[in-house]
Amino acid sequence: MLGDYRIQGRRATEIAADVERAVGTGELEPGQALPPLRELAVELGVNPNTVAAAYRLLRDRGVIETAGRKGSRIRPRPVTTPRDRARPPAPPGTRNLSAGNPDPRLLPPLAEALAVAAAAADRAPVLYGHPVADPELIGFAAAGFHADGLPAAAFAVTNGALDAIDRLLAGRLRPGDAVAVEDPGWSSALDLLPAHGLRAVPVALDDQGLRPAALAAALAGGVRALLVTSRAQNPTGAVLTEARAAELRPLLAAHPGVLLVEDDHGHGITEKPFATLACGADRQPVVPHWAVIRSAAKAFGPDLRLAVLTGDQDTVDRLLGRQRLDTGWVSHLLQRTAAELWRTLGARPPGVAEAYRERRDALLVALAEHGIVGHGVSGVNVWVPVPEETAAVVGMLQRGWAVTPGAPFRLESPAGIRITVAQLDPAEAPLVAADLAAVLGGAPARARSI
Q1: Do residues 392 and 87 make contact, with C-beta atoms less than 8 angstroms apart?
Q2: Is 39 left (phi over 0), alpha (psi -120 to 50) or beta?
Q3: Cα dist from 87 to 77, 190, 418, whole Å
Q4: What percent of the chain has pLDDT over 70?
């Protein structure tokens, strides 16, 4: 059942910690079955209730899953084994098209904006009791949200989009609740759910966003929250169109108890228009509890750990309440830096969206010339369905290209690979496409200088 590994511990917390540690080190593999409750109790010399409590802790932590009489087993991807472990490192000498990062050459210089923020801090240091949000930053964000048709609502600043999602889910959901997610979808969000003891319900999507029938099925199944990406969806580049949003909003409106979380992390790097599920043309919320998040990571750099969100008052208040209990607030140096960048460059730095579009289009055209279907209508990634991920990734590595296997992003969707085009010269696109065609066609690798 567990091979040579023997679970240790006398208390429930000790037993749970031992299993979680073994999963994290790889001594226990995802999918392995745990001993029946009473059998492990006898082996450890403890009360069966102690083992039951340990298994309950592990289940709430997202480490194991239970299936009635079939017993308990390590989750396919428990929270202690992040999905990033499925991504092999890029060997020296390869072109890394796997990281998902923006192009550093397209990021704005930070020195002047940081100097402005530092000067403001020198004039008026931020002390305990200071308002948590910078008024100028909120002003810029509010204007952008209003221009994109969102209702007047409450605002908050968090340490990035994932921090916002984390707090939003914690503020309204409980362990065991189901959350509808895009499939394929953002691996970090898929890792986050089991950390809260939440269950991910996959919803298929296409280039225009979630498929209506798939969302309807998830809602009918009783999900308590919906996570959706507005633009530059990771890994597929999908964009929620207004036509698709108009199909989805009535489905969501029929389930007013669902928390809607929209992640518009790509707002600064794509020319595609914003569409929302949160409200229609009348700006009236579709569901009572909702939030739309916009982060600075892709446009201004991942190390500028900052996002601004808007949402209904109760949802935002719950987020701020949790934030007050730990970090308290996001550094005003970061907030003022982001506000200064927003003031001087706008929410979308000039030329960035166009550069990424040129690189995506070059690869998509080159792939199509070899009969390969790719997806990437926005953002910095192209998603390519493949018959078998490992063979595709290894084959591309042999030809000098590091790409990402689709496994970290998938729940039930078919196999694929993600190719990050952020730093791909359009002139290189035919080389990538030709090598991928050779890999998928079974041709042997040949030496190529890149």
Answers
A1: no
A2: alpha
A3: 14, 15, 11
A4: 94
In angstroms, what is the C-alpha Rg of the chain?
A: 23
Distance of CA 283 to the CA centre of its chain: 27
> What b-and-e string marks burial along 152-162, b requiring 16 or more CB atoms within 10 Å of the CB?
ebbbbbbbbbb
What single string gives the DSSP state of each residue in 174-198? -TT-EEEEEES--HHHHHHHHHTT-
Alpha-carbon distance of 116 to 112, in angstroms, equals 6
What mean pLDDT comes out for the span 366-385?
97
Give the strand pairing for 401-402 and 381-385.
unpaired
Q: 339 near 357, Cβ under 8 Å?
A: no
* Burial of residue 38 (number of CB atoms within 10 Å: 0-12, 13-18, 19+): exposed
Residues 54 and 8 sit within 8 Å (Cβ to Cβ): no
Contact 151, 284 (CB under 8 A): yes
3-state DSSP helix/strand/coil percent for the chain, to nearest 5? 45, 15, 40
Question: In 273-372, which ranges are E strands?
Answer: 290-295, 307-311
Question: Which residues does 109 contact at the CB level (< 8 Å), separation at least 6?
Answer: none
**227-240 residue pLDDT tens:** 999 999 999 999 99
* CA distance linking residue 271 with residue 275, whole number of Å: 12
The one-letter code for the residue type at 152 is A
For the whole model, what pTM was predicted? 0.85
> How far is Cα 435 from Cα 431, in angstroms, rounded to an integer?
6
Residue 361: name the closest of 450, 218, 237 by CA: 237
- Tell me what pLDDT residue 90 has: 74
Locate 414 and state its tokens: 């078919």
- Mean pLDDT for the chain overall: 91
DSSP-derived secondary structure letter, 267: G
**Type of residue at 423:** Q
pLDDT of residue 197: 81
Check the CA dihedral 189-382-157-303 and report its sign: positive
What region, left, alpha or beta, does residue 151 occupy, with left being phi > 0 and alpha being psi -120 to 50 degrees? beta
Both tokens of 182, joined, read 């895009």
Contact, 72 vs 65, CB < 8 A? Answer: yes
Please tell me the distance from the alpha carbon of residue 422 to that of residue 227, in angstroms, as a whole number. Answer: 25
CA distances to 161, 241, 345, 376 from 357, rounded to whole Å, are 23, 17, 19, 9
Residue that has been written with the tokens 């194991």 in this structure: 64
- Give mean pLDDT, residues 34-50: 91
